[in-house]
Amino acid sequence: MDRKLDHLKIEGKDVELLPEFPVRFACIEHFDEELDDYVNDFEAAPDTYRADLIEDESMDKRCRACGAPAKIALLKEKGM
Ligand SMILES: [Zn+2]
What we know:
binds zinc ion, three-stranded antiparallel beta sheet, CxxH/CxxC protein, YyzF, two-stranded antiparallel ribbon, 1 helix, globular
């Protein structure tokens, strides 16, 4: 499920997000597919981070496509 947040701690930094864009996760295998989906769904290219840099233990960091542990986070930063 998509999570919508207005900020997130990434690698110790508080990063402001555009809350209308969800945070999604993808494994390496599905990254290209998820990137295309994000652009199609929200008409904007997401910013990407390594999933393990996202410091939110409550977040379900599994690939949206296959449920495997995710390697990449897709989100949209404010002002980017
Ligand atoms: Zn996957």
